[in-house]
Design goal:
heterodimer, A: mainly alpha, MetI-like fold, 15 helices, B: mainly alpha, two-stranded antiparallel sheet
Chain lengths: 279, 293
C-alpha cells in the first residue's frame, strides 16, 4: 500500500513537472512563431492591426522584398565563405598543433602553450582595438579577408585537441613509427581517426561562432555588399524600420535554416556541449 | 615520447607562432600600450600621455554608469540564469523517458544557436516594441497600459536581462544536465532509503555533488556576460534613454570606433579585462573545495 502511494505521488509529481516544462517550452518558442507569422503579414497589417496570431491575409511580400530588394544572396555567400574557410582552417590547425603540443618535445613548449592559454582570458574588446589598427594597416579594412586571416589560430581548439591527443595510446603511434610512417601520415592515419568526436564538436562550435559573429563584421566591414548575415540583418532592420514584415522575413531566412540544422544535429550539439563545456 | 622530427615541427609551428604573435599577442600588448597614449588612427600626433586616460576614467560620468550597468546586468542575469537553469535541469532529470528529456533540452537550447543579433532584432522589433510588440498587445488585451520596454529607463535593463535569459539559458541547462547525469544513481537510492523527499534530495545530494559543475558554469557565464554586446547594440537605441543600457562593451565600441579615441577606449578595455581576471581568480579559489564521489 505504502509503496503504491509513493509510486502514485512520484507519478503525479512527474506529470506536474512535465506540464511546467511544456509551458516553459511554449514560451521559448513563441518568439519564433511570432516572427514567422509577422513575416507573412502584409506591411499594413503589422502596423494597424498587429494583434493576430496568424496573418489575416498571408503574403510573400516580405520575402520578395528581402530576396529581390536587397543583396541577400551576396550576404549569404559572404557568410558561407567566411564560416566555411575558418572552420576548415581551424580544424586543420587545431588538430595539428594539438597533436604537436601533446606528443612532441621542443624548447619553450610549455611557455608557448601557457601564453596561448592566457590569451583566451583576454576579452575581444581588448584585442579588437589593436587588431583593427593592424587590419587597417595591411589594407584589409572592408574586406571579408579581415574576418578570415586573424582567425587561423584558435586556442580553444588547440587546447581541446591536445587534451584529446593525450589519450591516444602511446603504442599506437610508436608502432606506426617503427613501420616507417612519416609525421603527416601518422597525423592523418592515426591521430585524426582517434580524436574524431572532438573534431565533430569543434566543427559545430567553430561554425556557429563565425556564422553568428556580429562584433568583428561590425568593426571591419562598411560596404553593404560585403556584410555577413548577422550584420546585414541589423543593417536591414534599421533601413526598414517601418516595415516589420520584411524585417521578420529577413530574420526568418537567417533563423529557420539554423534551427533546422540544429534539429537534425541536436544529438551531436548536445553531446558536444557537455563534452567541451564550450559556449 | 615520439622522437621529434624537426622539419615537420618547424613547418607547422613557425607559421602558427607567427600568426599567434601578430593576431593574439601583439593585440594584447598593443592595446595595453595604446591605453597610455592619445591615439587616433586618423591623427598624426599620437603621443604618449602616461596615466592620463586612466585618470580621465575617474571623472567620466558615462564610464561610471557603464561600469555600474555592466555589474548590475552581469550579477542579476547570471544569478537568475543559474537558478533557472539548475531548476530546469533538475526537473528534466526527473522525467522517465529519454525522448522527453532530450525533447525539452532541445527546446530550451534552440534559441542559443541562433545568431544573437537575429534574435535581438526579432525581440526588439516584434516582441518588446512599444507600438506593435507582442508583449504590449497582450497587456492591452488584458486592459493594461503599454510599456516602453526598451525606451523607459526603469525597464531597459529588465528587458535586456529577460531577452538574454531567453537566448542563453539552454547552454547552462545542458551543462547542468550533464552534471546531474554524472551523479551515480546509488547516491539517490541511498537518500531515498533514508526517507529523503525530492527537495531534500536536491539540496542534500544534487547541489553538493554538482559543486564542480556549478563552479565551472558560474565562471563561464560571468565571463561571457561581462562581454555581452550584441543585444545592447541591437535591442536598444543609442544605449537606451539616459544611457540606461550603456555597458562597458558598448562604451568601448563607441569610444574606439565612433569617437575614434582609441587610447581612452583601450584604457576602458583594460578595466574590463581586470574585472574578468578578478572574477576568474576569485572563482578559482572558491572552487578549490570540492566533493568527490
Amino acid at each position: 500500500m505504502g509503496k503504491d502511494m509513493n509510486k502514485k505521488r512520484g507519478m503525479s509529481r512527474r506529470v506536474i513537472i512535465f506540464l511546467v516544462l511544456l509551458a516553459a517550452s511554449i514560451v521559448v518558442v513563441i518568439p519564433y512563431v511570432w516572427m514567422l507569422s509577422n513575416s507573412f503579414k502584409p506591411q499594413l497589417e503589422t502596423m494597424i492591426d498587429p494583434g493576430h496570431l496568424l496573418p489575416k491575409d498571408p503574403t510573400l511580400y516580405g520575402y520578395d522584398k528581402v530576396l529581390t530588394g536587397s543583396p541577400f544572396f551576396k550576404w549569404l555567400a559572404n557568410s558561407l565563405i567566411v564560416t566555411c574557410t575558418n572552420t576548415v582552417v581551424i580544424l586543420f590547425t587545431s588538430t595539428l598543433v594539438g597533436y604537436i603540443f601533446s606528443r612532441f618535445r621542443f624548447r619553450g613548449k610549455n611557455f608557448i602553450f601557457a601564453m596561448l592559454l592566457f590569451t583566451m582570458m583576454v576579452p575581444a574588446q581588448v584585442t579588437m582595438i589593436t587588431t583593427f589598427i593592424i587590419i587597417d594597416g595591411i589594407g584589409l579594412y572592408d574586406s571579408i579577408l579581415a574576418l578570415i586571416i586573424p582567425s587561423f589560430v584558435n586556442v580553444f581548439g588547440i587546447y581541446l585537441c591536445k587534451q584529446s591527443c593525450d589519450e591516444i595510446p602511446k603504442e599506437l603511434i610508436e608502432s606506426a613509427k617503427i613501420d616507417g610512417a612519416g609525421d603527416f601520415k601518422i597525423y592523418f592515419r592515426i591521430v585524426i581517426p582517434q580524436i574524431r568526436p572532438v573534431i565533430g564538436a569543434l566543427a559545430i562550435f567553430t561554425f556557429l561562432e563565425y556564422w553568428n559573429d556580429y562584433l568583428n563584421p561590425l568593426i571591419y566591414l562598411s560596404s553593404t555588399d560585403r556584410m555577413t548575415l548577422p550584420l546585414a540583418l541589423s543593417y536591414f532592420s534599421t533601413q526598414h524600420s517601418s516595415d516589420l514584415s520584411a524585417t521578420m522575413a529577413a530574420a526568418s531566412l537567417i533563423m529557420i535554416p539554423a534551427a533546422i540544422v540544429f534539429i537534425i544535429f541536436q544529438k551531436q550539439f548536445i553531446k558536444g556541449i557537455s563534452m567541451t563545456g564550450m559556449k | 615520447m615520439v622522437r621529434s622530427n624537426k622539419k615537420f615541427l618547424l613547418l607547422i609551428m613557425i607559421p602558427i607562432i607567427a600568426e599567434a604573435v601578430i593576431f593574439l599577442i601583439i593585440p594584447i600588448l598593443g592595446t595595453l600600450g595604446i591605453s597610455f597614449m592619445d591615439y587616433n588612427p586618423l591623427g598624426h600626433t599620437n603621443s604618449f600621455t602616461g596615466w592620463d586616460n586612466y585618470r580621465k576614467l575617474l571623472e567620466d560620468e558615462n564610464f561610471i554608469i557603464a561600469l555600474r550597468n555592466t555589474l548590475c546586468f552581469t550579477i542579476f542575469a547570471v544569478g537568475i540564469n543559474i537558478v533557472i537553469s539548475l531548476t530546469a535541469a533538475t526537473m528534466i532529470s526527473q522525467l522517465r523517458s529519454n525522448k522527453t528529456r532530450s525533447f525539452f533540452r532541445m527546446m530550451f537550447f534552440m534559441p542559443c544557436m541562433a545568431p544573437m543579433v537575429a534574435s535581438a532584432v526579432v525581440w526588439g522589433r516584434s516582441i518588446l516594441n512599444t507600438k506593435v510588440g507582442l508583449v504590449n498587445e497582450i497587456i492591452r488585451d488584458m486592459g493594461g497600459d503599454a510599456i516602453a520596454w526598451t525606451g523607459d529607463p526603469s525597464y531597459v535593463m529588465f528587458s535586456v536581462i529577460v531577452f538574454t535569459l531567453w537566448a542563453d539559458l539552454g547552454y547552462n541547462i545542458i551543462l547542468f544536465s550533464a552534471g546531474i547525469d554524472g551523479i551515480p544513481g546509488e547516491v539517490y537510492e541511498a537518500a531515498a532509503i533514508d526517507g529523503a523527499g525530492p527537495f531534500r534530495k536536491f539540496f542534500n545530494v544534487t547541489l553538493p555533488l554538482l559543486g564542480r559543475t556549478t563552479t565551472f558554469v558560474v565562471l563561464m557565464t560571468l565571463i561571457s556576460y561581462f562581454q555581452m554586446f550584441a543585444q545592447f547594440s541591437v535591442l536598444l537605441f543609442k544605449d537606451g534613454p539616459q544611457n540606461s543600457g550603456l555597458v562597458l562593451t558598448s562604451y568601448i565600441y563607441k569610444i574606439a570606433f565612433v569617437n575614434k579615441d582609441m587610447g581612452y577606449a583601450a584604457a576602458i578595455s583594460v578595466i574590463l579585462f581586470i574585472l574578468i581576471l578578478i572574477v576568474s581568480l576569485v572563482q578559482r579559489k572558491a572552487g578549490k573545495v570540492d566533493w568527490e564521489y
